[in-house]
Structures are given as structure tokens and as C-alpha cells.
Amino acid sequence: MKRIMLAALCAASLLTGCDQQQSDAAMNKLKSIFNAVKPDALLLQDLKPGVTTEAQIRDQMGEPDTTRTFTDGSKRLEYPRGPAGTTTYMVDLDANGRFVAVTQVLTAQNIAKVRPGMSMDEVRRLLGKPTTVAEYPLKQERVWSWHWEEGGVTRDAMFNAHFGPDGIVTTTSRSEAEGGGRH
């Protein structure tokens, strides 16, 4: 908490002497940095179904990595907590822009749903933004990897979805997280 206060004081001192537009831009940048490191309990605090608005969610959680709008007017906001984080939150809004639910999608149940034959878009909608993307030109393969809480002895691991040149899952695998799963 002391580090956050120190960072806020430093930022405030840097903002003195800036014009209003520069000051607003710097404040928004600072806010996005704080949202990126904000503990999940604060990030998700006081979200009330049918009451909390999209604007309030964006103010509290920051700008989502991806926003998907569905045919019925409802939306899904994607908040990956990376790059080393092990959670990705999907925030669902109704057609009126009101909060419906939040779901942590990097779970064993969702990972088990990834199967050969799925498209990149289907996998992205299920698990959110991958932690890393690796290209293997000689194998004609692209591998998306997610850092996630696996539990058990190693605690966390990497889930990998392997895509062929057509963007379709060919196989999946598991690998050790950087640091040997001691995050």
C-alpha cells in the first residue's frame, strides 16, 4: 500500500505544470497502471447485477482488452490479468449496459473444452487473450499459451493450444510455467 501511495505522490508531482489535456492523459495512464495491478478483490468489489453500469465497470476495472457485442445488444468485456497473471475475467452486460455476471474463465473445466477442430476465435472466446503466442514456421504451427492455476503439486502451469496454418486447433498440451510453477 505504501508503494501505491508513493507512486501516486510521484505522479501527482509530475502532473503539476502540465496543461489540462496532458494532465488528463497522464492521469488516465496512471489509472490504467493501477487497475492492472489492483488486487482482484478490489477489481471486482461492489459489482451489482442489474445496477452497475458499463461506465462504472470501466472506471473500476479499466479498459477491457476486448469488447464483444452480441446480436441481442448484450456485451462481454474481457479482462486478462497478465502477463504473468493466472486469471482472465469475462464481464457480461445486458442490452441496457448493466452488469449481469463476471466469470473467471481460466479454469480446468474451460481448458478441458478446448478440442481439435476449434477455431482461434472459438478458443479466444472461451479462454480470453493468451499469455504468449509462439510461431513455429517449419512446423507451420502457432501455439497460444495461457498461464493458469492448475493446483496440485506445481500450483500453476501453462496450457497450450496448437493451431495449424488454417487457424484450427490440432492438439493441446501442458507445460511448466516459468519459474517451475512457483508463482
TrEMBL record:
<keyword id="KW-0732">Signal</keyword>
<dbReference type="Pfam" id="PF04355">
    <property type="entry name" value="BamE"/>
</dbReference>
<protein>
    <submittedName>
        <fullName>Lipoprotein</fullName>
    </submittedName>
</protein>
<feature type="domain" description="Outer membrane protein assembly factor BamE">
    <location>
        <begin position="105"/>
        <end position="134"/>
    </location>
</feature>
<dbReference type="GO" id="GO:0019867">
    <property type="term" value="C:outer membrane"/>
</dbReference>
<keyword id="KW-0449">Lipoprotein</keyword>
<dbReference type="InterPro" id="IPR007450">
    <property type="entry name" value="BamE_dom"/>
</dbReference>
<keyword id="KW-0472">Membrane</keyword>
<dbReference type="InterPro" id="IPR037873">
    <property type="entry name" value="BamE-like"/>
</dbReference>
